Amino acid sequence: GMLEIGLLGAEGGDATFFSSLEARNIRCKMGLLDGMAGVWKPGNILVSRLEIELRAGSDDAEAARKMSEVIFRKSPRVEADSFEVADATLRWGFSERTRGAIESSALKMQRTEAGWRMNFRGGYFSQNWLNRLEIVNLVVLCDPEGLLFEKAELKQGRGTVDFSGLRVIGGERPETKGVARIRHLNLENTLPA
How far apart, in whole angstroms, are the C-alpha atoms of residue 110 and residue 113? Predict the structure, then answer.
C-alpha cells in the first residue's frame, strides 16, 4: 500500500536540528504491518513542499552531540534512505551576519555511508550579503563532521559564485573553511537594500 500525509508540522527542541518544520503531501510505500512486524522500507519518500528553519549551532557540546544523533542515527525499524522534495525552502542563522536560505529548490536526498548527500536544483541561495543567487548546481554532503559543498555553482545575471570544496565544521560554534570564487557579480543587485 501507500502512505499519504497531507500536512506534517513540527516544532524543534534542544535535541533537534530544526526550530520548525512543515512538510506537505508526503507519499511513500507502506504495508499494513510495516514497522510493527519487520523493517519498514518506504523507498523514495516524496514530498511536494518542505519549509524548515534550521538551528544554528548549539548551546554546548552535549546539545551538539544530540542534534547530530537525530540526523545520522539509523532506525532499526525504518529504512528511510531517500527523499525527493519538489519545492524545498531551508532557512538558518540567528543574526543578520549568519542568516541564509535556500528557497524554492528541488531537493534530492540520499543516505550515504556516513550521512546524507543533498542535491539542490533551481531556486535561490542567500547567505549574509549574497542575496538571491540562482542555484545552478548545489550538492552538499552532510556528515557528523559538518557540511562539505561538493558542488556549489550559483549565478546572478552573467555573474557567478562557486564555493565548491568549502566545508562548514559543526559543533557548538560552527566554523567555515574554504574559498569562494566570485566572477562578474553585480554587487548592486546582490546586496540587500
Answer: 10
Phi, psi of 122 (to 5 degrees): 70, 180
Beta bridge partners of 149: 140
At 78-115, the pLDDT tens digits run 999 999 999 999 999 888 888 899 999 999 999 999 99
Q: Look up residue 64 and give its three cell numbers.
A: 551538539
Burial, 42: exposed, middle or buried (Cβ in 10 Å; 0-12, 13-18, 19+)?
buried
Q: Which residues pair with 3 in a beta bridge?
A: 28
Name the residue among 176, 178, 172, 177 with its Cα closest to residue 56.
172
Query: Is the overall model pTM greater than 0.85, yes or no?
Result: yes
Give the pairing of strands 167-169 and 181-183. Answer: unpaired
On whether the CB atoms of residues 41 and 76 are closer than 8 A, the answer is no
Which run of H or of E encompasses 188? helix 187-190
In whole angstroms, what is the distance from residue 149 CA to residue 117 CA? Answer: 10
DSSP symbols for 24-87: EEEEEE--TTTTTSS-B---EEEEEEEEEEE--S-SSHHHHHHHHHHHHPPPSSB---EEEEEE
* Residues ≥6 apart with Cβ < 8 Å to 124: 101, 102, 103, 104, 105, 132, 133, 134, 135
